[in-house]
Amino acid sequence: MILLTRRATFSASHYYWNPAWSEEQNTAKFGRCANRQGHGHNYTLEVTVTGEVDPVSGFVVDLKWLKDVIEHEVLDVYDHRHLNHEVPEFATAIPTTENIAIAVWNRLDAAVKAAGGAKLNRVRVYETGDIFADYLGETAEISGEPA
Amino acid sequence: MILLTRRATFSASHYYWNPAWSEEQNTAKFGRCANRQGHGHNYTLEVTVTGEVDPVSGFVVDLKWLKDVIEHEVLDVYDHRHLNHEVPEFATAIPTTENIAIAVWNRLDAAVKAAGGAKLNRVRVYETGDIFADYLGETAEISGEPA
Amino acid sequence: MILLTRRATFSASHYYWNPAWSEEQNTAKFGRCANRQGHGHNYTLEVTVTGEVDPVSGFVVDLKWLKDVIEHEVLDVYDHRHLNHEVPEFATAIPTTENIAIAVWNRLDAAVKAAGGAKLNRVRVYETGDIFADYLGETAEISGEPA
Amino acid sequence: MILLTRRATFSASHYYWNPAWSEEQNTAKFGRCANRQGHGHNYTLEVTVTGEVDPVSGFVVDLKWLKDVIEHEVLDVYDHRHLNHEVPEFATAIPTTENIAIAVWNRLDAAVKAAGGAKLNRVRVYETGDIFADYLGETAEISGEPA
Amino acid sequence: MILLTRRATFSASHYYWNPAWSEEQNTAKFGRCANRQGHGHNYTLEVTVTGEVDPVSGFVVDLKWLKDVIEHEVLDVYDHRHLNHEVPEFATAIPTTENIAIAVWNRLDAAVKAAGGAKLNRVRVYETGDIFADYLGETAEISGEPA
Amino acid sequence: MILLTRRATFSASHYYWNPAWSEEQNTAKFGRCANRQGHGHNYTLEVTVTGEVDPVSGFVVDLKWLKDVIEHEVLDVYDHRHLNHEVPEFATAIPTTENIAIAVWNRLDAAVKAAGGAKLNRVRVYETGDIFADYLGETAEISGEPA
């Protein structure tokens, strides 16, 4: 089994807020992350695909193609954006690291499938160097329903 | 000459906008950074002091004290905040990496001087792993006057 | 499947020594690590949990809670300590990277289980940037019985 | 289950070229990597083994031994070399990150098996900080047959 | 005094060889680096400029402009190239880390001067994470004259 | 002006203790670092030299020679050692990061001078990724006189 991974980064704002709760409840649960002025991170993304090594090229997938897919499907939508206000999937789901990993998977999975040959294996999202989430697929929807 | 440096991190939102300019001028100058929804970064701060090594303790300064000063003077004000909207010095100055470095110096200099013995030597601010500014003092005000 | 990981660090001393062996045997097996004056490392710990994403919070677990558990169960006992002399599980087991990973798992597993909802998935311990061990559970005791 | 990993680095040149194709086809597929003057990387290798923790030593394997095996079987052949021209397995296979991971596995597997007790679990090769391949075994030959 | 730094990377091949010397002399001096098949590195470049912070933009220089200058003046010439065979300044000078730092300075200095306002302050080149050279200007020619 | 830097690492134990003080005074000043069981770190050393670039070799100094000097003068004495108990200069000086930087300078300065041509410019010591000291020479003795 062979896995190929490409890393990418984006910078974005977010905050944690459940509109069904009072200000006190949100602050009790989310602490400083509940500040609705927002704060931000340099997110690092690791996208892993698995497949056969093509005997002609030595590639599982063309990394230039994978880079373009990540840029087009994810970075163009997330980078230099406010995740809560500008990214559709976070209109109704809290942009936690876990939910971002699931959302990135959902954005990439169709494009990787459409290309044929390789499959998405894992999406890792680092919020900081000390916190990261891995999503390995199999559930279709991101969780968290603040609205 | 001996220098002692302590690193710290904070996560914050910002955007670049000069209110004297039109939307077109701001976008032409600042690109995606002009998006007033804001975006964010994990900033890394390096605070360097210089002085004599105390023959009794082997310290230039007590690093626990320096950590507390950085937390109280900078992190409590900047971390998990929107720099443009919540930090006083950026009400009238654009929160570029350069201006953040100068502002952090200004926040720390008085406290270091008040403690006696050591002097602030340099403040480095990383906006990402690929971009950083160093301020070495001698000017009192941060630049950029959008208001 | 979703995994959430939190990193933490501690600084500790250790040495490798099997009291059933002679000085020569210990040195032959453990090299410079057999020096009983001890030496030390900045250890980095990665604690990974797995579970469902809570639809209300978007969390697998509350990372603030996980940080507190790691601090209370591991860092308070290991940080700025001599592992051989001050940590109970290494009174009778050699504090190799492998055994530290197992011991950290054992220290965290009960607390994660008690909280309900998520399960410990992996403990990774970096002794240096070039050496690390992963423990994925299923054995209850740490190995190595020097005493 | 316990895994132990050792990291190592080597610096080498390579290029991507399929001799069955024209210059145009190679450039279309491989872009700047098709430049036959070659270019190079600081490769980072992570070699992971799995096994029982020896109750006498606390080791899965002796890391000094593992380091020597990596140096002898891989670094002595790859470091400061041109992979296409000086390493036998790349005479007929393109030295992509995927193929290097498989080739390193094939170089190490016999030595680890011969030592007994532990098994090779994974070989990760970083071409840069942003690109890496993982090979987990089970296929004997590296892919890519330009010749 | 304020300094602003931008990091960039390139991957290239090189070797060390003085044509005035015999094979034995080259190997005695340069060791494995004298292998004329070449080997390569992921080089990291840090380009530092100094100047006044523009009160209108908060910039010392526009980082997008600086990125473009580095790409056009350096990366387009060095990246995915064999430094000895494809880069003019290394036709007659050995591409050591020191000489690369000087050569990058010489490539950037005119462009930075032409833009006005800021001055080049330092060029740092990392050959690996463990080896780097800093050039701070004032000498016009790179050293090493193998030809 | 050209600077060349080589990085090296060592793992060692230490503690902070002034024998002229009571246990209470030591704990008040040094906190957890006063634990005389000791704790340890992976120290990273950066040794910077400055000089002319030799026109024949393109070298400021031979990095292989510099590596050997660092290993012989510093690593052989500090690595896998307890600094307080096994390194002569810390019998009477507290092994703070500041004092280690000065001590490493003193160990290297004579050897670099003896070689001729280049001069020691800076010694940086990282105790962790977040704390480092730089020594730039000019004072001959390390400070701190616990004995």
Write a structural description.
The structure is a homohexamer of 147-residue chains. With 147 residues, chain A is an alpha+beta fold. Chain A has a single domain (2-15, 41-135), classed as Tetrahydropterin Synthase, Chain A, CATH 3.30.479.10. The first copy, chain A, has four helices and five strands. Chain A has helices at residues 23-30, 63-78, 83-86, 97-115; strands spanning 2-14, 39-51, 81-82, 118-128, 131-135. In chain A, strands 3-1-2-4-5 form a five-stranded mixed beta sheet. In chain A, β4 and β5 (131-135) form a beta hairpin. In chain A, α2 packs across α4. The radius of gyration of chain A is 17 Å and the shape is elongated. The first copy, chain A, starts with a strand and ends in a 12-residue tail after the last strand. β5 of chain C pairs antiparallel with β1 (2-14) of chain D, so a sheet runs across the interface.
